[in-house]
Amino acid sequence: MRPQLHLVSPEEAARSPYPKASLFLRLGARVVDVAIAWALYVSAGPAGLLGAMLYLLFADGMLLGQSLGKKAFGVKVVFLPSRAPARHRDSVLRNAPFGLVVLLGMMPDLGLKAFLAGLVVIGGIEALRCWKDPLGARLGDLWAQTQVTDGKVVDAQMMPVGAREEARATGRVMLERPTPPR
Q1: How far apart are CA 60 and CA 31, in angstroms?
Q2: What predicted TM-score, i.e. pTM, was given to this entire model?
Q3: Dihedral of alpha carbons 97, 41, 111, 114, sign
Q4: What angle do CA 12, 18, 20 make, to 5 degrees?
């Protein structure tokens, strides 16, 4: 039986063992990530916009649940069902609203206007949701079943490696690793 993708209900989110990450740290991390995406956009020519969008979508799965900005500010994205660092799939799901803003900027005639309108509307909804939610969950976090947490708290509470791999590999064929001779 394949696991079904579903939104995290408020009851499930309330069971998170992690406290809400500081909004100032999250904002600082987002500013660094947007600056990196902007640098990609400016330096890579016509492919820069695509590179910027791909960075924004995949960044949270790069360094065990941390983008470069999150690494600099000490926050981490955790996949709540297994309490493991976010993967690339989780990163794409949670950052899809911001990818939509970049896609709006790619519109031929309305590029900048559509980008700014999307940034105001989608960014405003995401920021308001993050600020009001007890765990700081945005819509993207609900879709991906993730939470942004303080990296030090997560590292102290992580599941053992074997249990984490088993939880992440549900429904997948896993090969046993041979034990090294002693």
Answers
A1: 14
A2: 0.71
A3: positive
A4: 95
